[in-house]
Amino acid sequence: MIVVSGAVAGGVIGALNRDGGDKPAAIVVAVADRGAVTLDVATTGTVEPATTRSLSFAVAGTVESVQVRAGNKVSKGQKLAALDDTEAADDVSDAETSLAEARDRLGDAETVGARATASATTCARTGPTVAPAAVGPAAAPAVGIRAAVEGRVASPCVTRGYPDTGSDQVLTAQQQVNRAARAVEAAEKALDGTGIVAPIAGTVVSVGGKVGDQVRGGSTFISLADTYSMQVRADFPEADAGALAAGQTATISLADSDDVYEAEVVQVDPAGTSDGTLVRYGVVLSFADSPADLLVGQSAQVKVRTGAVTNVLRVPSTAVHDVSGGSGTVLVRAANRSEERVVAVGLRGDQYTEITGGLEQGDQVVRSW
């Protein structure tokens, strides 16, 4: 007969089958019930900043000041280091002087052009200046027959000493102003490039020099990590990586802490790396709510949920054997007897396996056989 030893969570019960003899044969059975089936994959990872910036001076020069060192927390916009800017400041002053002179020349050219245009307009409106014509045959060839008849001759328009220069001088002066303005912008940009300012709030990871050093423009001088937005990088074996995808939920447990933090997979490396024995794929996870005082390089336990179904018929995964092609075998217990039965299998989780056919809710199966 079956002696029920007790009921526990999940509908699992224990039974003892006494077929005779002094030593009873223990058969632990489980009841097929409805609930959730989940599948997780786990590994270890390392805490790292979500963003790291390599900061450099825009120009070459001599380091005049360094206001931070590795480990310092800084705010956005905070000044971190500076070069001697004497030469750059002089360049800005010279460029501004050249721009002012070019604008003065443009103003002069525009004034001359405006006067010349005004004189030409007056001449065109009033007509040419005329003088009485000479009388007599000798004058006819010089003034023309018609002018001789009318008794007058046309003389050129007087422009009051302002030659007709057109727009060429104004255009040339405007081009000089444009070039001078660009030179000022470049000089100001170079002056700004003598300092390094934090583009984000974070923690200084490294400083690549000291006061008095000669540095090149564009060469990394300070590395700044966004430690206010930390993430975890972990490597999963090839067997697990195929089930991983961005957007999956996860949990992260930090070393020396019992706290568990919700997280999400944000990146799965498309190519794996091999150590000669095992191929692993890198995965990046972000905290749903990043805890305070995280340390760069801190160890973490990572668990990613790769599959989940709810309100399905399920039995303990240990009860299902020979799973292949969507089917498996269970040992059904009924009327003090056990018999094998092929069942249809869905998601095979860590603790439970989904049964899609072959069993009914309440059926008893041998938990482990």
UniProtKB/TrEMBL annotation:
InterPro entries from the UniProt entry: MdtA-like_C (IPR058627), RND_pump_MFP (IPR006143), UPF0194_transport (IPR050465)
Cell membrane found in the keyword field: no
Keywords on record: Coiled coil
Protein localization: Cell envelope
Biological source species: Actinoplanes subglobosus
Membrane-spanning intervals of the chain: none
Keyword Coiled coil found: yes
Pfam short name (any one): RND-MFP_C
UniProt xrefs under PANTHER family: EFFLUX SYSTEM COMPONENT YKNX-RELATED (PTHR32347), UPF0194 MEMBRANE PROTEIN YBHG (PTHR32347:SF29)
Protein name listed in UniProt: Efflux RND transporter periplasmic adaptor subunit
Family as reported in the entry's similarity comment: Belongs to the membrane fusion protein (MFP) (TC 8.A.1) family.
Predominant subcellular localization, coarse grouping: other
Start and end residues of each Multidrug resistance protein MdtA-like C-terminal permuted SH3 domain: 311-366
